[in-house]
Amino acid sequence: MTSEQDKKLQALDLKIAKALQIDVPELRMPELPDIDDTNVTSLPLHRRSMKPLWFAIAATVVLATSISLRTSSLFQSYESLAEEVLAHLDHEPGSLRITDVAVTEQRLARVVPASLASFERGTSLITYAQTCVINGNEVPHLVIQGQYGPVTILLMPEERVSESTPLDGETVKGVILPVGNGSIAIIGDREEQLEPIQKNVVNSVAWTT
Description:
Number of domains: 2
Number of strands: 8
Strand order of the largest sheet: 2-3-4-7-6-5
Largest sheet: 6 strands, antiparallel
């Protein structure tokens, strides 16, 4: 898939996400004024069913969701874990912003629950924390601020690798490290010195799942 196709798919995902956030107002029937019905002949009441309308709305939501999923990584197949990790970064460009605003402890605890792993953030400035899907499994997606820009960290307790696997993207580099029965992916700018970050991250994580 070309870079231009990725950009088009990302733009479509954003449009669909915005459309799905629109609240559908509750249907309210207007109140009719009181009238004298003494001389009015009652006719059989034929109510127009609202089911087709709501079925249409539901079908639209399902279709939009299906399109979004099909254009995301959930319905794409990858030859390797490394390829999927790099593709995942392309699908979340908003995570790679330079900022000095850290996520809250509550947010970090939701993304990295105690049932998954014990994680010590230490002095790292974590500016992004989101639960994402890699190879069908939900994994914590974290971003810290490195010397040359954002550094992505994917905690993957269910993705076992036998040895360190290098990651080589167009503008990024990284590695997937074996950690216990799982693995951790760390990706940053090509100028970033990842070795100290790798050491700190590996020493800060202990799987509990």
